[in-house]
Amino acid sequence: MGTELVELLKKSGRYEPAVDDIAIDTIARNSIYLRRVGRLLQSDTADAFTYARVTDSQAKYAKMIADAI
Description:
Elements lengths: L1 H11 L4 H25 L6 H21 L1
Helix pairs in contact: 2-3
């Protein structure tokens, strides 16, 4: 994902490695985390507490991605 974002920025002519690499890393890492915590909801052991914690984490990761964008 990070490589694709770099290529997209390079094509647009707006790639600044010193600034963009930090945001790209944040976006890629938190996208992975979002998928991982989402899998917890599908487990057989998920309960109301798990659901509350996972949705809270998902909201926080999504906010970090939005801020990085």
